[in-house]
Fold this protein.
Amino acid sequence: MDVLIKIKDREGVIHELQAPTDMAMNIMELCKAYELPVEGTCGGMAMCASCQCYVLNDVALPEMGDDEEAMLSEAFYVKSNSRLGCQIPITEELEGLELELAPEY
């Protein structure tokens, strides 16, 4: 099953992406699959914050882990709604999620 996730890129363009729930992907990998400008330098280990995004609507997300919290405490452009895309697995619960990519450093 696919879910619809909307991602606003750094130019303000909104991309409506079909995200598969059966491939163990996360938001960072989804962005890369659709060739959105997300580095993912650390490969999804919550160690670089290059996949930081802002959550724009109220969709239930997994709790933030210690590694993600620590990385965001050191990252640039962090807001109260910041998350690391690599730490958000794509599940059916994400249907309708709206995100915005954080600025690059």
The chain is about 15% helix and 25% strand. The CA atoms of residues 29 and 35 lie 10 Å apart.
